[in-house]
């Protein structure tokens, strides 16, 4: 027996249809890399997405084909998301901060057929074109007037394209992890999972969005789908403000001019913003809610915002979780809590929204109590959490019983609050982005004169963590730190380069010959990089 309600597949294009119909005049503002500004509306975005879908169909895009983007935040990038999805394709955002080997691997593994890119990234595109085996069409979002590009591609298309329909479990978006161990892995979001995630994000205890909101996502659209904001904001008709430049003076200017109420970004951008405000007396305008994620927000940062009447949503999640897992939203009794208790509460990673379940387990897989004391491997499950990586890379992501191991170690408190206590992997988290210690070590060992290397994350006041590289020289070798850095520069991204290189006589190992990272982390736990005060 079936229920008596209409069957309405949960597909992403329903979001844009709603925004066009109910909030068509609401603005989307874009500040470009050259600081020029364009304005459109949700109605204009929907029109351009339909034209783009028609153009992609004309180019031969088939259901399930991947369309890549290498771009910052702006309305054309957002139109490309909806246009590719509406044409039946899968939008694939590529992080331009990755080094060339990863960029080549990701696009080839995804088998992208079309690439949209910003002019600022044209050097990357030209450099990697010979290595990208499947990309047939390259389209520049901001090509100079008169040249082939995004505007020329959609100019001759009609406005009446009918979105490709299908099952709500069909894929709509592909995001790759940062490759913390080996090659990056693809996470294939569904229409259903994406729409459910967006519905959850607008709730008061997550991003607290409404038609009155003006949102400026500082998190890039290539970083875990800008935490889902390009899908959540149209649901409620929130005004969107995009910028390709995140310098604090520009951000403050946009906050004031566009009356921004909501923003989201990693701690690094907020540290720069706070320093700018403190140094210049700049104002944050109507800002009243910030979401901080990517890495743990410092207590002093949360306190700074609270002192100015700005709510902080301290978020935790992963690309594999679309990405929201928990948010530190005010609990019942918030008004009666002291400022100190409020601060302590928000400094934890928060509670799950409906749609996410968490548990912690010991090394034998036994479930541990939610008592605020037991610490174990953090696992998650829910309708927007990965089950299988794209192309079956690395096997199933979730265990047979449906639980995904996040790689974090955590405590679950009786009131449902989750608190990260450690990581089970040896990744280094810098400015909200992951650095693979294994890849860094392997690259260093490739340098002449290096016998062995180990990378560990050490404290940094701005970036949270930065790499410290420990090197054992080969017998008789006189390799220098400068030579190692020069070698690494050709193998890893610039921001992966270690802040310091220390030469040691030996490194600790396990009984099976592996580097004993636990001992190294403990040994250098209190290490301070040169020029950084304790």
Describe this structure in words.
The chain is an alpha/beta fold and 534 residues long. It has three domains: 13-347, Rossmann fold, CATH 3.40.50.12780; 357-423, Luciferase, domain 3 (Roll); 428-523, GMP Synthetase, Chain A, domain 3 (2-Layer Sandwich). It has 15 helices and 23 strands. The chain has helices spanning 13-23, 42-58, 75-86, 100-110, 122-128, 150-155, 191-201, 229-236, 248-257, 267-280, 299-307, 339-347, 437-445, 481-489, 517-523; strands at residues 27-31, 37-41, 66-70, 90-93, 112-117, 137-140, 171-176, 186-190, 214-217, 239-243, 262-265, 289-292, 311-317, 324-327, 357-361, 375-381, 404-412, 418-423, 428-430, 433-435, 450-460, 464-473, 500-503. The strands form five sheets. An eight-stranded mixed sheet has the order 2-1-10-9-11-12-13-14, sandwiched between helices. The chain has a six-stranded mixed sheet with strand order 6-5-3-4-7-8, sandwiched between helices. Strands 15-16-17-18 form a four-stranded antiparallel sheet, with no helix packed on it. Helix 1 (13-23) packs antiparallel against helix 2 (42-58). The longest helix has 17 residues, at 42-58. It is globular and about 70 Å long.
What is the compact description of this entry?
The protein has helices spanning 13-23, 42-58, 75-86, 100-110, 122-128, 150-155, 191-201, 229-236, 248-257, 267-280, 299-307, 339-347, 437-445, 481-489, 517-523; strands at residues 27-31, 37-41, 66-70, 90-93, 112-117, 137-140, 171-176, 186-190, 214-217, 239-243, 262-265, 289-292, 311-317, 324-327, 357-361, 375-381, 404-412, 418-423, 428-430, 433-435, 450-460, 464-473, 500-503.
